[in-house]
């Protein structure tokens, strides 16, 4: 027990007590030591000197292991999307992920296709998508069954938290039909029995398909996550390359009807949406 106490005290002098993570590591080390006194008794029998090199090595390894575990926990905590209602963004640019994104990257040997349908078509900025000299390619393509809608409130690109503007998102035809039907039921108390032909025809959204090489994928995702932090999330959809006619899967950033910045009224009332876009600045 004395040996255990000396180890803990001696180890404590190496750790700044004001540091949260190191304090947690020290507490974890003390707990391990106190719960396993038999280890120190046996170890003391074969290691009479506290300052032996082997003993120092064991303490150092234990400390490093604890620190790695703590950093992993903190990194996982930071990766949880958190919506800030005041700023109307996902904090730190950590947006909701999609389970198929990593599968998509693996199936393409590390490269990644990204479908742009809004500002990414004409303004990739200084991001990794603009690095054509490093292997990023682009091709025209289209998403069938997806509708471009000006129904995403924006407090960081086309507006402010006090007066959000509007930007576009992609919704499936089924999502749009469900929103319209729910609104009509709310007003009239019943659903329509017949749907017009124009409402059943598949929508088509033209855009740009970027192909990002493996070396730039991680940076590209980080940059786009931050760019699309205003309520967007990752999705994976089928897109058609215009030139080849080939259908491929691509990453898509979109604001779903469930996201906190979605504006149902803007979707259903185009004059209202136009009025917002006419006066919003940001």
From TrEMBL:
<dbReference type="InterPro" id="IPR006840">
    <property type="entry name" value="ChaC"/>
</dbReference>
<dbReference type="GO" id="GO:0005737">
    <property type="term" value="C:cytoplasm"/>
</dbReference>
<dbReference type="InterPro" id="IPR013024">
    <property type="entry name" value="GGCT-like"/>
</dbReference>
<dbReference type="Pfam" id="PF04752">
    <property type="entry name" value="ChaC"/>
</dbReference>
<dbReference type="GO" id="GO:0061928">
    <property type="term" value="F:glutathione specific gamma-glutamylcyclotransferase activity"/>
</dbReference>
<dbReference type="GO" id="GO:0006751">
    <property type="term" value="P:glutathione catabolic process"/>
</dbReference>
<dbReference type="InterPro" id="IPR036568">
    <property type="entry name" value="GGCT-like_sf"/>
</dbReference>
<protein>
    <recommendedName>
        <fullName>glutathione-specific gamma-glutamylcyclotransferase</fullName>
        <ecNumber>4.3.2.7</ecNumber>
    </recommendedName>
</protein>
<keyword id="KW-0456">Lyase</keyword>
